[in-house]
């Protein structure tokens, strides 16, 4: 079976005071090859936990996951990860950061160099190969992070709010870049975000998660990602279906947050 | 006990007054110079750049930079105060120096028969570092039964003179000195004379005290030119058969070896503690216990174990550096952003690759901070250890010199120790900027 299969995964944390938190409860999901999935939800819905489980950084308390037919037991280079920020290696320049994965595998230097040059082109950083990480802006750093992930040629890319720390303009450019990369490379991408617009734009499929316990609340199949490839994203946002969808999801999340607040207050 | 505590409190209060006075003088000079510098800098566009446009500077640490003019002026001020306090020949006299030269006074004596006569005492005061001058071949003894005297005194020193010894009948009972320069004097009383004062002792002798002036004695603080000339001599001849730089070299070599050993074992130990629960638990009590023990407290034990040879000192420095480096390396490991570790594993790194390619470089800034601290501690410890027991070394040189009251050598030693300590820190900072340019910018 190809793609990523999540079979009845639950995650329960024990609190120091003896209580339990059900971060995830009975998640069942099948992600096909080449799919672009965005995951949205209020804070505390377990979306980052889910991603960490998929990446292999956490073991679920229940359930199994498999990737291309074999079980996920730990981090692996078949599952690349793009973090929000702070995951680049400051002591290396851009080219060395991007070439890190292949280098760890012992790929010949000439091959790494060719790969790095190609990826620098894809993320639009041709002239920055020799720059140090701390000399670059947040947006450029995320481009490097994307390229570093792609250099390893993973089967799936897990993105944990990769654009969350960027300003609105940079964010828009990066959204186009993510779509481009998805189309060009055909990779499976799971993207976690707390921005409804971003989830709509960057999700062929969109999961809205709900908290306490963390679960999949609703699932959408959307046309906007396909439209956005190579197009102006603002154009996509003006599509007659976009606004209503956004409002629908916004009120859904709004209600969830209200519910949590109410529950906390009454508790 | 209570009395001792009380004495300590009194001493402390007196120190507060003293420190306040010294600081006040220094700050007054500083304020004066600051005002003058302000007058000079005004209208010259001295302040440039972005910072000069900030209106909120009081409280904005980034807007406060060291004024280089003030730094230079402070050093010059300290040097001048040194010159003034010691009556240096480099500057015109400010404080009255101690009296040196020839002077005289007259005394009037009454003999047992009740007659009085006057004689002169010739006083020659010579400098402490000058040769003792020859006594005059002959001296007029004067007429009458009281005879003139001649006395030689080192500057700032006192000499007791039995003026009546050479007088006719001076040893009879009832013979007494009754006036100095016409001022009546009795036993245990002080009378001033032209260049100092005279105290008459219980036994009726005259204690001659030439004026000591207000400058400091070279024994306590030698003037700069004297320190400089000692430096030249020391540089040429060394002290007690060991060259000045040989002493410094030995101190440095001990620090370098002890520090290197500390790094060699401390950094892996710190990594081990940062990476493994068992090892952290295993070493935690030792590290946490040894960390607050000042290395100086280990000197006696180290001497008992290893004697006063090189091994003892190097062991001491090793122990001084070891815990600092261990803790720095451990902090370096725990300071690694977990995202970086996750990223490295997701990119296919093995544990060994993670250690060498991620954790080691990522902890370099912490390790460098620790190394700077360790170097400072080692340098302080080596000097202290040499004070206690050593054959060679900067500390040994100054403690040996102090035993012979060679204050100038002590001061040279202290200045060299300070300059080298500062130099080490500057070098470490330069190495840090070169090797971990990403520090604080991650």
TrEMBL record, chain A:
Alphabetical list of Gene3D superfamilies matching this protein: P-loop containing nucleotide triphosphate hydrolases
Residue stretches making up the ABC transporter domain: 4-236
Entry-linked SUPFAM superfamilies: P-loop containing nucleoside triphosphate hydrolases (SSF52540)
A Pfam short name: ABC_tran
Signal peptide start and end residues: none
One function term, GO molecular function aspect: ATP hydrolysis activity
Lineage top rank: taxon: Bacteria
Keyword line: ATP-binding, Cell inner membrane, Cell membrane, Membrane, Nucleotide-binding, Translocase, Transport
SMART domains listed in its UniProt record: AAA
Family stated for the protein in its record: Belongs to the ABC transporter superfamily.
Name of the protein in question: Taurine import ATP-binding protein TauB
Source organism per UniProt: Neptunicoccus cionae
TrEMBL record, chain B:
GO CC, alphabetical: plasma membrane
Domain ABC transmembrane type-1: 248-428
Broad class of the protein's primary localization: membrane
InterPro entries per the UniProt record, alphabetical: MetI-like, MetI-like_sf
Record's keyword annotation contains Coiled coil: no
Chain segments annotated as transmembrane: 12-36, 69-91, 248-271, 292-308, 314-333, 406-424
Entry keyword set: Cell membrane, Membrane, Transmembrane, Transmembrane helix, Transport
Family: Belongs to the binding-protein-dependent transport system permease family.
Name assigned to this protein: ABC transmembrane type-1 domain-containing protein
Taxonomic path: Bacteria, Pseudomonadati, Pseudomonadota, Alphaproteobacteria, Rhodobacterales
